[in-house]
Amino acid sequence: MKVVAGSSSHRCAKELAGILGADVVGVERKVFPDGEVYVRMLGGVRDEHVVIVQSTHPTNALVELLFLEEAAHDQGASEISVVVPYFAYSRQDRVFQEGEIVSAKAVAQLLELKADRFVTVDPHKEHILGFFGVEAHGVSAVPLLAKHLEGRGVDTVLAPDKGALDRAQFAAKCLGAEFDHMEKTRLSGTEVVMKPKALDVKGKTVAILDDIISTGGTIATAAAELKRQGARKVVAACTHGLFLNNALERLRGAGCDEVVCTDSLETSVSSVGCAPVIADVFEERRS
Ligand code: R5P
């Protein structure tokens, strides 16, 4: 087995290779003056099971992944597994308005062309795995995030909305904490209002857990409301930290005492490596 470290997922790829006892294949990557992407795999993969690790954000990273799959295929890999810790384009998981496409399906159909298997971490919605015509796995980083939060005295784990309650419930169970959800109304792509929630957080340490922090609007609004209600400490945790438009500053300014995410996207607060839960998929296949 060889693990190819795509440019957006170096850290995760190296940790995964370490766990699986596989060699890492580096990638030379350039962007031409016209914006086109060039990739070259720096190691042979003939007759090997190749595991390519590459999140698909930003869009050039998706192009890079498609090229790496092509390279592994052309060089005679015996099997190709595609690990996409953060699956960008998966939030458009259905047609909301006439004329739209389901981008999660469109990208899945591209990724499966040269792949035998797909693995992602905390997909926004589980049903997107059904868009793949090959074996597809969604693993959860919530146990790893919960482990990271151990020892911080978390009393309450909150989902920012009802849809995210399962993750909060699972983390709360790991931490022996209570759980609940906030009530959110989204006004626009960047504006969110939280309806007051009848929840007693006074004097408590609260962890807010979401799958994605994008602009930080959702969590910032929740954190400010929780602090207003007297929460002692607010920790914001997510699997995928995009942190667009100075989101980290926004979150801290809104009252988040700590922000943590996984390395599905490599950021300054990616304190949790998601390789162990990805490795489980491959370990299970071996046993
Ligand atoms: C939405 O369904 C997701 O779970 C997140 O709540 C959302 O992507 C967060 O976006 P933002 O950080 O821009 O509020």
Question: In terms of topology, how is this protein built?
Answer:
Layout: E1 2-5, H1 10-20, E2 23-25, E3 27-31, E4 37-41, E5 49-53, H2 59-74, E6 79-84, H3 103-111, E7 117-121, E8 135-139, H4 142-149, E9 156-159, H5 165-175, E10 178-181, E11 183-186, E12 192-195, E13 205-213, H6 217-228, E14 233-241, H7 247-253, E15 258-262, E16 270-272, H8 275-286
Parallel strand pairs: 1-2, 1-5, 5-6, 6-7, 7-8, 9-10, 9-13, 13-14, 14-15, 15-16
Antiparallel strand pairs: 3-4, 11-12
Bound molecules: ribose-5-phosphate.
Quick summary:
With 287 residues, the chain is α/β, with parallel strands linked by helices.
Query: Strand fraction band?
Result: 25-35%
Which geometry do the CA atoms define?
globular
What is the end-to-end distance?
Answer: 15 Å
CATH topology of the largest domain: Rossmann fold
Average pLDDT rating: 95
Structure description:
The chain has 287 residues and is an alpha/beta fold. The chain has two domains: 153 residues, Rossmann fold (3-Layer(aba) Sandwich), CATH 3.40.50; 122 residues, Rossmann fold (3-Layer(aba) Sandwich), CATH 3.40.50. The protein has eight helices and 16 strands. It has a six-stranded parallel beta sheet, with helices on both faces. The chain has a six-stranded parallel beta sheet with strand order 10-9-13-14-15-16, sandwiched between helices. A two-stranded antiparallel ribbon has the order 3-4. α4 packs across α5 and α6 runs parallel beside α7. The chain is globular, with a radius of gyration of 20 Å. 47% of the residues are buried. Bound molecules: ribose-5-phosphate. Ribose-5-phosphate binds next to β13 and α6. Ribose-5-phosphate (R5P) binds next to β13 and α6.
